[in-house]
Design brief:
Strand content: 15-25%
Strand order of the largest sheet: 1-8-9-11-10-14-18-15-16
Helix content: 25-40%
Shape: elongated
Number of helices: 16
Distance between the termini: 40 Å
Largest sheet: 9 strands, mixed
Structural class: alpha/beta
Number of strands: 20
């Protein structure tokens, strides 16, 4: 294992627009406060607006333009900051099936108008509502602005782009921006890692980007890059990358990150992140255009790296978080692994390869095996895998990630708690149940191997196509014979928004995981 040089500190263009707390209503006026140049109101109705100057102007405008209060609208507002007032209504708040994401949607529309109008320091106003579903509406709206404003790393590097806004003010009296900015710093890192093309963000490039991002962060960071160590310690991961070893710039990496909070440790969390830099399908090659977009198959590792970035900023006490990111390119070539091979995992489990295009679970199994060993002697351990793993989860749940937990995690209520947190923070999950049939599905029927990695058909048309991979992970990683709590998170449907191939990375489920940790700073 190669220790990271602590002096490495290459500048990373984080491209983050900071959120600034604004406590006084006087900031809405021209010439007051920090030089705000637009007021963006995100509200369920005009009646919710508390500032009389905004309320009166909006009410008057609604008599002239019936769109005001019904769709996002820019108003000429003399006397207000920048002379611009943008009313972006929250639609469908009375619908009992709506969740806090309706505030995110409205905020994104409002901030996009502010940007297009030439504002550089807009002030975001989100009136509080009594509905408990929307308790975190202000924070969710502010984070949504970051999602809207992020631009791809390739464009930033090629065109020397700077952030499109200088700052966003959040007019409030109760919310503190520290947590929002930490979460957004993590999401910027995660989007960069997930959304960048496979040569710029190769396994080597991904690892180096992490090294730079965590320089002087206080986290322990190391990278495994030696071929001998990779093949010996991560045999399944190395099988996936076997054809890439011959191309130096495509060789695999494993990044290890560790955060240890001050004080007595009360909980230890372990994360395995799938970082398949590019998935050709390997010998079971993707055909008919289905290879496009496979540079986004590293969203799990990206989200975990982003979570660690947020923790490095917040520095919560009393918890320990350990992550391993498996970075590998599933290449085609004469040395590629093939279906029917039997490969022994790090846990000593003999794995028959059912389909080389089911490579992500192989990567995760070795990572989880290493984490399992550490978890056995840790305080209150919980293990997670995060991966863009199956097309089936998209077929089953659309844009929602799935939680599949073992019985130990179920007894602790891990998936239920995480789903509740996600619902309140705009990153909702669907909870799937692991069944005995899922373990039957991965049994090697002739006994030559201990387990088979997959069937040989697309997961999207395979019954229980996103559940049974969790059974494989439990068996191939050695977790089957432990009492450790393990939850698999399949984010194939939520890692990217918009265009399924080249849409904007979301960093899902970073925000939900951050709040699941129940950090003391979150109670502020």
């Amino acid at each position: 294992m190669t220790p990271i040089n602590k002096q490495v500190n290459k500048a990373i263009n984080a491209f983050q627009v900071p959120i600034i707390d604004v406590s006084s209503d006087e900031a809405i006026f021209e010439g007051e406060g920090e030089g705000w140049d637009a007021v963006v109101v995100v509200a369920t109705s005009l009646a919710d607006i508390k500032q009389d100057e905004i309320s009166l102007l909006a009410a008057h405008a609604s008599q002239i333009d019936k769109r005001v209060g019904k769709s996002a609208t820019l108003l000429f507002a003399p006397g207000l900051a920048g002379g611009r007032l943008i009313i972006s209504p929250v639609v469908d708040s009375e619908n009992e099936y709506s969740d806090v994401r309706i505030f995110a949607k409205a905020a994104r529309k409002g901030i996009a108008i502010a940007k297009a109008a030439g504002a550089t320091k807009p002030l975001l106003v989100v009136p509080a509502v009594s509905d408990k579903r929307f308790a975190n509406a202000e924070q969710v709206a502010a984070l949504a602005c970051g999602q809207e404003l992020w631009q791809p790393l390739e464009a930033r590097e090629a065109n020397s782009l700077s952030p499109s806004l200088e700052a966003i003010g959040l007019l409030n009296t109760a919310i503190h921006s520290v947590l929002i900015n930490a979460a957004e710093a993590g999401r910027v890192l995660a989007r960069d890692l997930c959304g960048t093309e496979p040569e710029r963000m190769s396994a080597i490039g991904f690892a180096q980007y992490c090294v730079d991002a965590f320089a002087d962060s206080g986290l322990a960071v190391s990278v495994i890059d030696q071929v001998e160590l990779l093949t010996a310690q991560y045999p399944l991961l190395s099988a996936v990358g076997r054809s890439s070893f011959g191309v130096e710039r495509h060789q695999p990496r494993v990044v290890k990150l560790e955060y240890v909070g001050e004080g007595t440790i009360s909980k230890t969390l372990f994360f395995a992140g799938k970082g398949v830099i590019y998935d050709t399908g390997g010998s079971d090659i993707k055909v008919a255009g289905s290879m496009a977009g496979m540079s986004r198959d590293k969203g799990g590792a990206a989200a975990v790296a982003g979570l660690m970035k947020a923790l490095s900023i917040l520095k919560p006490k009393g918890i320990k978080v350990i992550a391993e990111l498996g970075l590998v390119r599933n290449s085609i070539g004469s040395d590629a692994f093939v279906t029917d091979e039997i490969i022994t995992s790090h846990a000593g489990v003999r794995v028959r390869i059912g389909n080389t295009d089911a490579e992500g679970r192989l990567v995760l199994a070795d990572l989880l095996s290493h984490l399992r060993i550490q978890a056995r002697t840790s305080v209150n351990p919980q293990l997670f895998s995060v991966a863009t793993l199956t097309g089936h989860v998209v077929r089953a749940y659309g844009g929602y990630p799935a939680l599949v937990e073992n019985n130990a995690a179920k007894r602790q209520g891990v998936a239920e708690s995480l789903a509740e947190v996600g619902e309140l923070w705009g990153e909702p999950f669907e909870v799937s149940r692991l069944r005995n049939e899922d373990f039957d599905k991965v049994a090697d029927k002739n006994g030559a191997a201990d387990v088979v990695s997959s069937n040989n058909g697309p997961s999207s048309i395979t019954a229980r196509g996103h559940q049974y991979p969790a059974a494989f992970l439990i068996k191939a990683s050695g977790l089957e014979d432990t009492a450790l709590a393990f939850t698999h998170i399949d984010i194939a449907g939520s890692a990217v928004e918009g265009d399924p191939l080249y849409g904007k990375p979301t960093a899902s489920p970073l925000v939900a995981l951050l709040h699941f940790l129940k950090l003391p700073s979150m109670s502020q």
